Structures are given as structure tokens and as C-alpha cells.
């Protein structure tokens, strides 16, 4: 039968590392006092020291402040991922109603007002595609000169012929 690894709460890790950093326990004495292994406690002490220095760890944070930072970073990453999916699905960025409908299809119950506030939080502005406009030709044809100059009222028959080349 295999042993299961014990898991410890962030508060426990923080208190154990505080014994070494704040109360001047040696790592061995702190290990005996809290009943954890040397390597685990040494890792928690190094992580807590780094977090106190302002470095957010790549592993799960110990201090509440860095846990909150990691939660916010995860939320931002999720929002950026959702935005990437939504902008690939349409031309431009859809509006709050469309985002709300797509999130509801995925199982997230988000109303259009919540979607609008999330869009505002992520600095997203809906961008709808412009209607197609035909361009007016500004320069003269390079193939043949424009002899009629759009004057299609001819007095005598067979003086001007025109056709449609489309």
C-alpha cells in the first residue's frame, strides 16, 4: 500500500516558516516542533522570504497578499483567453449581448450587463464591421481614354457605342 503525501494549508506553511524567519528557530528545531520534513520546511522558508521581498512565486503562494495576486492574475488570464476566443470567432470585437449569449452556451450564466461590465473592466469596446462601400475611380483608365466623358446623350445614331465590362 502506497503512502499518501500530506498536504498542508497555507496558514500552516506560513506559521512554520515564521518560526525560522521571525522567531530565530533553526530549521531542524522548527521541523521537530511542527512535525514536517527538512526539505519541505526549507522550501517554505525560502518561498516566504521571497514573497516578503515582493516576488510572486510560480508555485502556490503562502501569504494571503500573494494568493490574491495569483487569483487576479488567473482571472486576467481567463479573461484574455475568452477575449481571444471571441475575437477569433467574429470580425472585430462583439458586443455585450453576443458575449453573454456565447458564455451562456458554454455553461457560464452571464447576463448582458455583467458581460458589459467585464468588457469595461478589460477595456474592450465593441467594434462592428463597416458596411461595404464601393470606391469611385479617381484616375483615368490606363487602357483606353474616356472619349465620352460620361456624356451618353448623342444626337446622331452610331456615333458612340458603350458596353458594360464587369
Proportion in β-strands: under 5%
- How helical, in percent, are the residues? 40-55%
Number of helices: 6
Q: Tell me about the biggest sheet? A: none
Name the overall outline: rod-shaped
Mean pLDDT across all amino acids: 81
The rounded distance between the terminal residues' Cα atoms is 81 Å
Overall radius of gyration: 34 Å
Q: From N to C, what is the helix and strand string?
A: HHHHHH
Low-confidence stretches: none
- Supply the helix-strand structural class: mainly alpha
For the secondary structure, the number of strands is 0
Oligomer: single chain
What does this structure look like?
The radius of gyration is 34 Å and the shape is rod-shaped. Among the domains are: 10-52; 68-121. The chain has helices at 10-21, 27-34, 38-52, 64-89, 96-105, 112-121. The protein is built from six helices and no strands. The protein has 166 residues and is mainly α.
Amino acid at each position: 500500500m502506497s503512502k499518501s503525501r500530506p498536504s498542508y494549508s497555507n496558514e500552516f506553511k506560513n506559521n512554520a516558516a515564521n518560526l525560522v524567519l521571525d522567531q530565530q528557530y533553526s530549521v531542524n528545531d522548527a521541523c521537530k516542533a511542527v512535525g514536517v520534513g527538512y526539505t519541505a520546511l526549507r522550501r517554505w522558508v525560502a518561498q516566504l522570504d521571497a514573497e516578503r521581498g515582493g516576488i510572486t512565486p510560480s508555485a502556490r503562494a503562502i501569504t494571503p497578499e500573494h494568493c490574491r495576486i495569483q487569483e487576479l492574475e488567473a482571472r486576467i488570464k481567463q479573461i484574455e483567453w475568452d477575449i481571444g476566443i471571441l475575437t477569433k470567432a467574429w470580425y472585430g470585437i462583439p458586443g455585450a449581448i453576443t458575449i453573454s449569449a456565447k458564455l451562456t452556451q458554454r455553461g457560464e450564466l452571464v447576463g448582458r450587463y455583467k458581460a458589459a461590465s467585464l468588457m469595461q473592466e478589460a477595456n474592450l469596446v465593441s467594434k462592428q464591421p463597416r458596411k461595404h462601400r464601393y470606391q469611385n475611380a479617381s484616375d483615368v483608365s490606363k487602357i483606353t481614354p474616356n472619349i465620352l466623358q460620361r456624356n451618353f446623350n448623342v444626337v446622331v445614331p452610331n456615333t458612340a457605342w458603350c458596353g458594360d465590362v464587369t
